[in-house]
Automatic annotation (TrEMBL):
<dbReference type="InterPro" id="IPR016152">
    <property type="entry name" value="PTrfase/Anion_transptr"/>
</dbReference>
<dbReference type="GO" id="GO:0016301">
    <property type="term" value="F:kinase activity"/>
</dbReference>
<keyword id="KW-0963">Cytoplasm</keyword>
<feature type="domain" description="PTS EIIA type-2">
    <location>
        <begin position="4"/>
        <end position="147"/>
    </location>
</feature>
<keyword id="KW-0808">Transferase</keyword>
<keyword id="KW-0598">Phosphotransferase system</keyword>
<dbReference type="Pfam" id="PF00359">
    <property type="entry name" value="PTS_EIIA_2"/>
</dbReference>
<protein>
    <submittedName>
        <fullName>PTS mannitol transporter subunit IIA</fullName>
    </submittedName>
</protein>
<keyword id="KW-0418">Kinase</keyword>
<dbReference type="InterPro" id="IPR002178">
    <property type="entry name" value="PTS_EIIA_type-2_dom"/>
</dbReference>
<dbReference type="GO" id="GO:0009401">
    <property type="term" value="P:phosphoenolpyruvate-dependent sugar phosphotransferase system"/>
</dbReference>
<keyword id="KW-0813">Transport</keyword>
<dbReference type="GO" id="GO:0005737">
    <property type="term" value="C:cytoplasm"/>
</dbReference>
<dbReference type="InterPro" id="IPR051351">
    <property type="entry name" value="Ascorbate-PTS_EIIA_comp"/>
</dbReference>
Length: 147
C-alpha cells in the first residue's frame, strides 16, 4: 500500500534544515516537482502551524505535515523527508524531528488506508529509527516495502 505512494522520487535526505519552515519546504519539494501539490499547500501548512502550533508532530522525531485538500492538492500523495541532524518544531517532548511524512489528501476518505499503514510504521521504533538514520533512498524504501 505505502509503496504505491512512496517511490524513490518522493524521498529526500537532507543533512540539515534551518528551522521548521525550511523543513516543511524541503518536505514538500518533491510533491511540487511531480505536480501532486501546488506551492500554496506549503503556505497553508505554515499558516496552520502558526495558528494551531505543531499539531502534526505525531511522536518523538516524527512529523506528518499536511493541510486541507482545497489548499492545493492535485492528487493523493505522500513524501518522506529525512533531516539527519533534526530540527526543532517547538514540540518539546518530540523535538528534534528527523522524519517528515508529508501527506496530501484529495478528500476526507482516500487517505485512510495510507494513514493506517503509516500508524503501523510509526509504532515500530526500530523502523522509524532506521528511516531517521537512512543514508539513501534505498534504505528508506527497504523499510517502506514492509508496509
Amino acid at each position: 500500500m505505502l509503496r504505491e505512494l512512496i517511490t524513490s522520487d518522493v524521498i529526500r535526505i537532507h543533512s540539515d534544515a534551518t528551522d521548521w519552515k525550511d523543513a516543511i519546504s524541503k518536505s514538500c519539494e518533491a510533491l511540487i516537482e511531480n505536480g501532486a501539490i501546488e506551492p500554496s499547500y506549503v503556505e497553508a501548512i505554515y499558516l496552520s502551524h502558526e495558528e494551531l502550533g505543531p499539531y502534526y508532530v505525531v511522536g518523538p522525531g516524527m512529523a506528518m505535515p499536511h493541510a486541507r485538500p482545497e489548499d492545493g492538492v492535485n492528487r493523493l500523495s505522500l513524501a518522506i523527508t529525512v533531516i539527519q541532524n533534526g530540527v526543532n518544531f517547538n514540540s518539546e517532548e518530540n523535538d528534534p524531528v528527523k522524519m517528515l511524512v508529508t501527506l496530501a489528501a484529495t478528500d476526507s476518505n482516500s487517505h485512510v488506508d495510507a494513514i493506517s499503514k503509516l500508524a503501523e510504521l510509526f509504532m515500530n521504533e526500530e523502523h522509524v529509527e532506521a528511516i531517521c538514520n537512512a543514508q539513501s533512498k534505498e534504505d528508506v524504501l527497504a523499510i517502506i516495502d514492509k508496509y
